[in-house]
Amino acid sequence: MLKKLSAFEGIKGPIVTIVMDGVGYSPKEEGNAVAQARKPYLDSLMKKYSHVLLKAHGTAVGMPSDADMGNSEVGHNAIGAGQVYEQGAALVAKSIQTGEIFKRDAWKEITENVRAKKSTLHFLGLFSDGNVHSNIEHLKAMIAEAKKEGIAKVRVHVLLDGRDVPETSALDYVGPFEKFLDELRSPEFDVCIASGGGRMKITMDRYNANWKMVELGWKTHVLGEGRYFANTTEAINTLRAETKAIDQDLPPFVIAKDGAPVGTIQDGDSVVYFNFRGDRSIEITRAFEEEHFVEFDRVRFPKVTYAGMLQYDGDLKLPKRFLVPPPAIENTSGEWFSKAGLKQFACSETQKYGHVTYFWNGNRSSKFDGETYLEIPSDVVPFEQRPWMKSAEITDSMIDAVASGKYNVLRCNFPNGDMVGHTGSLRAATMAVEAVDLGLARLLPVIDAMGGVAIITADHGNADEMYDVDKKTGLPKTNKDGSIKAKTSHTLNPVPCILYDNVTGGRLSLKEGSWGLSNLAATTANLLGFEKHESWDDSMLLIK
Ligand SMILES: O=C(O)[C@@H](CO)OP(=O)(O)O
Ligand SMILES: [Mn+2]
Ligand SMILES: [Mn+2]
């Protein structure tokens, strides 16, 4: 049980954590949608209330190095668990480096299956070195090992990124990768790319937001249905010229030879989904694993030996077979607040719903006792067309939940800064931040009225840098037509953390210090009048 604090009895009203997804802090104004947004409410909070900056990237959130940006999974894991675990990116890299991955049963089953049946080994996943969902180095290591182990035929299905890496960088990955395959290819080892498409068009949907994407991915990778191209470079060049889309939004393509797809997925094949992050892996995994599947008509359901890079959901045991064990995230704040008998409420719209539930609770999909979840359906549109997204509805729901008096601890996520930040539109991203400002201005007074306190923070940066800046010159890069190259990925910047307290008469503030997202759970525990769990990182709260 969490122990009661002796120095502080705790706030009587609700404690509310508000995550402004993708709203990082940078002193640089140019290309910074957060700084440029008209957000009088948030600006006044920064003047009036105790605040600090939190580290939200790199080793502070369990990534392999401080060159790695933060992301929603590692960010919400750290906030919810109050601790830093080595995350998927680091665990897989290590397992490959030590060779452990290839000694485990999952890899052996995958490879023995294709050797025994003389069938094809397929790799499917996000094709970049973004290290948010996947890393192309992991893919290359597995292909090289497959050759070493005498596998005869490998097909690769590539989901183009442009969201964790520069927006039109796909060919920078395809070129060197084709060369890598050319060097491995031999009469005994037949390897090539078989299909692909933009990650926001096919396969990588999350939280059941748009199953059509997964259906289109299934048609492309499994059935080999779609537009044929002779190779990936030709596909990308043609589709770019026709659609003007950036990589994440490019339509699907099928690589064909002599009028037939080179790599459909068939009975007896093995399939490795090489993304380590779970949210955008669960739906396609279900399509490959579920015997009775209702989300779309698969037309053909090949009997394959399937493995995910990690296990994506420990409660649902999805997938059954995985190459590397996921981080065992234990003693989350959700669990211990539940054990303390507290009532918890979590809310977001579909795009971030799993962030405040599944990621928050250490990648568990089931609830702890006393938890209530509310999902507001997201629009299925390009978010630069609706930068306000469902911020008003999230605010309405949070106001109702706070005012109901039913909950001790509440959490919500406003997706705007992140989802609109990823589109690369600076104009829309400033509106996104402004929509969050409107929401805060409505919600916080209701927390006052209930005698509560709020922490306003974020999980990582995104909207704070909308220009792709040349590291050497510090100037924005430009496209061929002279326009500024947009940055669609997350940033390395810290995030704000504001303690909104109008109820203790100034007794509480945040200590100066070198803090990160993992210090939030203990801080919330203190606000509730509890000591932190022994495994959580320290509280930032100073109590007078
Ligand atoms: O959209 C996503 O999948 C990632 C970026 O790859 O963003 P976030 O971590 O904010 O969910
Ligand atoms: Mn995020
Ligand atoms: Mn994001």
Molecular structure report:
- By secondary structure, the protein is of the alpha/beta class.
- The protein folds into two domains: 15-86 and 329-543, Alkaline Phosphatase, subunit A (3-Layer(aba) Sandwich), CATH 3.40.720; 89-308, BPG-independent phosphoglycerate mutase, domain B (2,3-Bisphosphoglycerate-independent phosphoglycerate mutase, substrate-binding domain, 3-Layer(aba) Sandwich).
- The chain has helices at residues 33-36, 40-48, 72-81, 88-98, 100-103, 105-117, 136-148, 170-184, 211-223, 232-243, 282-289, 333-339, 350-359, 391-404, 416-421, 426-449, 520-527, and strands spanning 15-20, 51-55, 121-126, 153-160, 190-198, 228-229, 253-257, 260-261, 270-273, 305-308, 344-349, 371-376, 409-414, 453-457, 495-501, 508-510, 515-516, 541-543.
- The strands form three sheets. The chain has an eight-stranded mixed β-sheet, with helices on both faces.
- A hairpin with a 2-residue loop joins β7 (253-257) and β8.
- The longest helix is centred in the C-terminal third of the chain and has 24 residues, at 426-449.
- The radius of gyration is 24 Å and the shape is globular.
- The protein binds 2-phosphoglyceric acid (2PG) and manganese (II) ion (MN) (2 copies).
- One manganese (II) ion is lined by residues 21-22, 72, 75, 418, 459-460.
- Belongs to the BPG-independent phosphoglycerate mutase family.
- Its EC number is 5.4.2.12.
